[in-house]
Amino acid sequence: MVDRLTEIHNMSQDQQMLDNECGWMDMDVPDKETASQQVSSIEVDSTIQLTHSSHARDDGTGFYKEHLTSNNPHAIAKVLGAYFHDRYSESKGPSTKDLRNSIRIELGYKVSYWKVWMDSEIEKSLVRGTHEHGYGVIDAYSHILRTSNSVSKTAVVVDENGRFKCFLVAYGAWILGFAQMRKVIAVDGTFLKSRYCGVLLSAFAQDIENHIFSVAFCVVDSKCDASYKYFFEQMSSFVLDTPKLCIISDRHPSIGKIVSVVFPSAHYGCCMRHLGENIRKDFHNGSVVHHFLRQQKHTMYNIMTINITESINVVLLGEREFPITALFDAINKRFTEIFHERRMIFLDIGTKFVPSMETIIAENTELGNKLLVHQIANYRYIVTGHEVVATADLQSKSCSYRVFVIDKIPCPYAMAALRCQYGEDYGRRIYEYSSLYYTVDAYIMAYVEEIKPISSEDSWQVSIEILERKISPLFIEPGKVGRRSYKRRK
Predict the structure, then answer these.
(1) Cα-flanking dihedrals φ and ψ of residue 102, to 5°?
(2) Which of 12, 216, 218, 256 could bond to 201 as cystine, CB 3.0-4.6 Å?
(3) What is the pLDDT of residues 287-334, one digit of tens each?
(4) For residue 246, what are the contacts with CB-CB under 8 A and spacing of at least 6?
(5) Residue 425 phi/psi, 5° resolution?
(6) What string of DSSP letters covers 305-332?
(7) 0.70 cut: is pTM over it?
C-alpha cells in the first residue's frame, strides 16, 4: 500500500511539473465524445482560437487560448471581442443587443449583456484606439495632416493644465474649393457620444449642384461664446469678411453674437426651417409657415436653411462615438471619396453650365416665351403673365419678381425681357446674366484639389518635441464616466 501511495504521489508531482512547463490550467479532462468533436476554428492574430470545445490554456508560447461554446459559460470578453473583430473596422459596428443575438444564433452561446458590452469596448479600442490615446497624439496627428495636405489649416488648444480644449481642421482642398462656392455658410454643432463628450462644430457651404461642401470642422469642449469665437476666428483666415458673405444658423445666441464681432460686414440669418417650426409651435397653425416663407426677402442664392449641416450630422451619426483621431479619419475618408466622385462626374460634359442649371434655363426659357413684354426704357421692361406683372431691369440684373435676384439666374420674366432686348441672340446672352458659380469649370475647380489620407500611426515621422507633448482628455465630472445610469421606477 505504501508503495502504491508513493507511486501515486510521484505521478502527481510529475503531472504538476508537466503542467507548469506547458502552462496547462487544472481542469476537468473532457470525455472522449467531447474530445473527438471536429469543428472549424477561427484564428485571430495567432493568439486567440475560437472552437467548439471547452478548454482554456496557455500553449507554452505565452499565447492564451480559449474556446468559445455553449459548454463554456466563462469565456472572457477578450475572446468574444476576437470573434467580432472584423465588424468594427469600417463603421460603428453592431449594437450590444445585436452582438448577443449573433452569439446565441451562430454559436448557441448565452452571454450576459455586461460581458458583451465589455467585449465591444475592448474590441473598439483595439481597432480604433482608446479615447485617451486619441487626445494624447492629437498634436502629432495635426502635424501629419498638414504635412500630407498642403495649405490645410489645423489648430490645437489646451488649457493651463494641459487638457484638451479645441481642435480645428480645414483641409486645403476645402479652403481652395470654397473660393468657387456661393458665399453662404451654414454653421451647426452636434454633441459627441464618446465617454468624454464634447461638441463637433461644422461649417458648410453648398455647391452649384446643391451638394454639401465642407468648410471646417472643430471639436470643442462645449457650445459657448468662447468656442464659437475661436471657431470663427480660425475661419476668418480663409473666409473673407465681405458684404457678400452670409452665415446662417439655428439661432444659437452665441453664433449671432460672435458673427457680429468676427465678421462685421457679413449678413447673419437664422434657419427658416427652425424659425418655421417655432412659429408652428407657438401659434399652433401650420398654414402660417407657408405664407411666412413666401414673404422672406433672402438674397443669398435661396439658401435659407442649415439642412446641409444637419445632413452631415446624420452621415456621421455612428462616428460621433469614435476617439477624436478616428473621428477625423472617418471625415477624411468620406470627403476623399466625395471629392473624387464629384471631380470626375463633369469632366466630359459638353454644356457651359452644370446640368441642373441647364434644366432650369430651359424651363424658364419656355415659360418666358409665353409672356407679354412692353419696353418702358432702355434695358427696362414690363412683363405680364401668369397673373403677375413684373418689372425687369437688365442693366442692374434685377426683377421685381425677385427670383432673378435670389437665384442669380434669369427667371421667366427676365427671359422674356432678354428675348425682346437681344432678339435671336438672347440664348447666348442668358449665360452673361447668370452667376459664374453655375459654370462647369467653377464646379470642377471646386473639387480639383485632392484630399490625401492620413498615414497609419506607426509610420508617422514627427519631432521629439511633438511626440513628448501629451494632451489629456477633456475634463468631465467623475460620476459621468462610463455608461449613463438610469433611475428605475417601481
Answers:
(1) -65, -45
(2) 218
(3) 655 555 555 544 444 444 445 555 666 777 778 888 999 999 999 999
(4) 183, 184, 185, 266, 267, 268, 269, 300, 303
(5) -85, 0
(6) --HHHHHHHHHTTGGGGS-HHHHHHHHH
(7) yes
